[in-house]
Amino acid sequence: MTDRYAVIGNPIAHTKSPALHLAFARQCEEEISYEAIQAPLGGFVEAAEAFRQAGGKGLNISFPFKIDALRYAEHLTPRARLAGAVNTLSFDGGSIYGDNTDGLGLVSDIQERLRFNIKGKRVLLLGAGGAARGVVLPLLEQAPASLMIVNRDQGKVESLQMQFAEFSDFDIGTYGALAGQSFDLVINATSAGLNGEHLPLPEGLFAPRSLAYDMVYGDSATPFELDALRLGASRTADGLGMLVAQAAESFYVWRGHRPDTTPVLAGLQQDLAAR
Asked: Cβ contacts of residue 118 below 8 Å, gap of 6+?
């Protein structure tokens, strides 16, 4: 019987996860099925449980359900517990296991594929939700000169700061606190790009030779990427490379095989360019 996997989110029509995991399966000679599920807002647990009860083996978690998945999981890996968010669920022996591979995927894509060394750089992280929580510790582990996290909701970013206080100190604030500051690496961990929204980014935010990285991706440049170029970023990247890297780690968690991401990412990029 073919093992069933899926990605769950809202919205989910844009997802490349099915193509990724099926490509990994072919490469590793594993027989699986993989689908996309759009769960209603507030309906994550019901959708996830229906998939599990129908024999599903695992779920990838997309926006906005990563904190819901944390609460749903019965057992957490240390990296998921520290992140306070889950992007990979495994169903095994009647138990629900939660993991988080987002941070590994982000750092791998920025440093290995994009050749941008985070060590000693001034880093700004936009957002304080599940996507941001999953990458804070991996970013801090790269020893940046500084890390600042901003969010529209001051209380939410204060909660995030308290969660990671034992590991390192970093600055927080709302978008108004960005005036007069500049950064070498600006990472958008909000969902604004999914809805075509623009973030309130000030002039002078991007330092010379800076990288603007959007954790979401699409068929063309995201609103954040376009705004970053207008404001002086030297280069931009969307989250397609991160998606591939974190998906490969999820595949390893499920199947015990770590696929080669290079040909899979190249294939996705070719498909997008052909549209």
From this structure: 107, 110, 111, 139, 142, 143, 144, 185
Main-chain phi, psi angles of 152, to 5 degrees:
-65, -35
Q: DSSP readout, 246-267? A: HHHHHHHHHHS----HHHHHHH
Shortest CA distance to 29 belongs to which of 244, 243, 256? 256
- Which one, of 169, 173, 141, lies nearest residue 155 by Cα? 173
Q: Which residues are catalytic?
A: 66
CATH of the domain at 44: 3.40.50.10860
Q: Is residue 107 part of a domain?
A: yes
DSSP 25: H
**Distance (Å, whole) CA 96 – CA 239:** 27
273 pLDDT band, cuts 50/70/90, is confident
| CATH number for the domain harbouring residue 213 | 3.40.50.720
Left if phi > 0, otherwise alpha if psi is -120 to 50, otherwise beta: which for 143? left
Reduced to 3 DSSP states, what percent helix, strand and coil does the chain have, rounded to the nearest 5? 40, 20, 35
Q: What pLDDT digit, counting tens, does each position of 109-134 carry? A: 999 889 999 999 999 999 998 789 88
Query: Which residues constitute the domain of residue 153?
Result: 103-240
CB 176 within 8 A of CB 152: no
159 and 86 in a single domain? The answer is: no
pLDDT digits (tens, 9 = 90+) for 46-55: 999 999 999 9
User: What pLDDT is recorded for position 167?
Assistant: 81
